[in-house]
Automatic annotation (TrEMBL):
Organism of derivation: Rhodobacter ferrooxidans
Domain of life: Bacteria
Necessary cofactors: pyridoxal 5'-phosphate
Official protein name in the record: Threonine synthase
GO molecular function: pyridoxal phosphate binding; threonine synthase activity
Amino acid sequence: MRYISTRGQAPALSFGEAMMTGLARDGGLYVPETVPVLPAAEIAALAGLSYEETAFRVMRPFLGDTFTDAEFRRLIAAAYAGFDHAARAPLVQIGPNHFVLELFHGPTLAFKDFAMQIIGQMMQAALAKSGQRITIVGATSGDTGSAAIEAFRGLKNIDVVILFPHGRVSEVQRRQMTTPTESNVHALAMEGDFDDCQARLKDMFNDFAFRDGVHLAGVNSINWARVLAQVVYYFYSAVALGAPGRAVSFTVPTGNFGDIFAGYIARKMGLPIEKLVIATNQNDILDRALRTGDHRTNGVKPSISPSMDIQVSSNFERALFDAYGRDGAAVAAVMDEMKSGGFRISQGALQSLRETFASGRCSEEETSATIAATLAATGEVLCPHSAVAVKVAADHLGPVPMITLATAHPAKFPDAVQAACGIRPALPPHMADLYDRPERVTRVPNDLCALQALIRERIAL
Ligand SMILES: N[C@@H](CCOP(=O)(O)O)C(=O)O
């Protein structure tokens, strides 16, 4: 199994190399050269298995010889041992033919833990073999940062530096990043929005002297391993509802497009997914793009679902790569146009995207109303991101079961949830004293050189 860049100009890599590399050296994203298809009998055989065994069977065909089977099983077991629900990802029915997949039972209360915990295990295992040290730099609009910190805190051979947009994440999200005491954790509050943070991160990858000098690694969904680990819960939930004998659809709260792209990979692997519905908040570039073909930024507006306050969705590039017939030059050209604000998706590519994806947008008012209505109808307290998706999913219900991804625990957004439905969700016991813990954070400008200097100083190579 080899991995190739969406821009066609970087060397093909093995799974282990792609995982440690992050962004391809031509600025593109790594994708598998071919996606392995699971025969229907193998999909059917996933029914009733544990989350861990499902993860092993779904991810194994992508790994090549990076880990032995026994080693990989051990890493999976360690990754999910800290989840607080025996099912790891329980399905809850909220209406006729409508189910919510709760992805917030990991240590940092968001779906990011599903991938970050296993990447943490895999990277540590790889580094133990190579004896290397690395600097992980991540950009976050709220959830990736704490999940990365949780996965890598306290490790001797890894520094983890997280850039988050100052004043644009919830207080719980910020405290999750700024209260860990380990000296290898560096929380940086950057001027600007998430798109600025991600742009500076990509600048760092594209500056080869810096990249090689600090042994830069990435754990955003830039990293193929992040996407792969998220493919698992599509299989796990669809099989629970009767796949492969019965098709399902998914609605996904969408920001950086990594989560829904994992669903796209599950579909390519043979999981019968009828539609993948992109749910956006008022930062609706993807909904506009799919409806009109015009993929154009119009500024990031802060919302009550801050993790989705994104206009430049990194992984959309992976979907475009397939939509443009895997033509790296065409992808490089549209990404170049994106630097000046946007591009028109070609008619053929648009048609191809619409075969798999549908989309919808949810306003701030609709988000709050959905939190209140879902609580009243079902007793389920949704976080604002999950509420965005539940609202959009409701507009796309049909004969096949709809699974809506609930991506974060409502307690990460207590103010928005309380304002919407009157209930202030409590943090779980392991985070009960979060507001009493001292914070450690550095304010930084949106300036590449300043950021690089600070990172060099912090990691003291
Ligand atoms: N919504 C994300 C943004 C980063 O996404 P990623 O999947 O590329 O890590 C967040 O909460 O940080």
